[in-house]
Each structure stands twice: as structure tokens, then as C-alpha cells.
């Protein structure tokens, strides 16, 4: 086998190995995306169950959407439950009865 043939054979072998690694990476990324999608679906179901258990399904979708938009503002708050509870308590003190 001549030097040129060996170089061509080695180059093809490296290309094949690179293609195999690329396929493996794509498969791994696809599995990771599917796992993330499944986790998101489970989380959505749990949050929906919490909304239902809290009796909030009596509200219209637009009301719930507005509520969640307001709650989203608390996203960067260190203790959002405490802040929200404090705000609601203060509102009750100002405008009884609550």
C-alpha cells in the first residue's frame, strides 16, 4: 500500500469516526431534549393539580393568566411566599374584611 493510499485510508477512517461521534452526540442531545420535555410536562401537570386543589379553577383563564403574570414579578424575590403573604395581610388590614 502506497503512502498516498494509507493517508487516504486513514483520512476516511477519521471521517467515519467523526461521523459516528456526531451521530452519538445527536442521539444524546435528543434523549436530553426528550427528558426535559417529559419533566416539563410532569411539572405542568403538578402545577395544574395545585391550581385545581386550591380551588382556583373557578376563575376564568384570563384571570389566572393575569395572576400568574403578577406572580412572575416575584420570581427574583428571595422569599416570594413571605412577600406575597405580607402584601395580602397588609391589604386586609387596610381594607377589612378579608
Roughly what percent helix? over 70%
Number of strands: 0
Rg (C-alpha, Å): 28 Å
Number of helices: 3
* Shape assignment: rod-shaped
- Which structural class should the secondary elements be placed in? mainly alpha
Q: SSE order, as H and E?
A: HHH
Span from first to last CA? 91 Å
Structure in a nutshell:
The protein is mostly helical and about 100 residues long. The protein has three helices and no strands. About 0% of the residues are buried.
Structure description:
With 98 residues, this protein is mainly α. It has 2 domains: 57 residues; 40 residues, no CATH class. Helix content is 80%, strand content 0%. It contains 3 helices and no strands. 0% of the residues are buried. The model has no long low-confidence stretch (mean pLDDT 92).
Which short descriptors sum up this protein?
2 domains; 98 residues; mainly alpha
Amino acid at each position: 500500500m502506497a503512502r498516498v493510499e494509507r493517508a487516504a485510508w486513514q483520512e476516511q477512517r477519521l471521517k467515519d469516526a467523526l461521523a459516528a461521534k456526531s451521530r452519538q452526540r445527536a442521539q444524546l442531545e435528543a434523549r436530553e431534549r426528550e427528558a426535559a420535555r417529559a419533566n416539563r410536562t410532569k411539572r405542568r401537570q403538578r402545577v395544574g393539580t395545585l391550581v385545581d386543589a386550591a380551588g382556583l379553577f373557578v376563575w376564568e383563564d384570563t384571570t389566572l393568566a393575569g395572576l400568574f403574570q403578577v406572580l412572575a414579578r416575584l420570581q427574583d424575590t428571595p422569599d416570594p411566599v413571605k412577600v406575597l403573604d405580607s402584601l395580602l395581610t397588609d391589604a386586609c388590614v387596610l381594607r377589612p374584611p378579608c
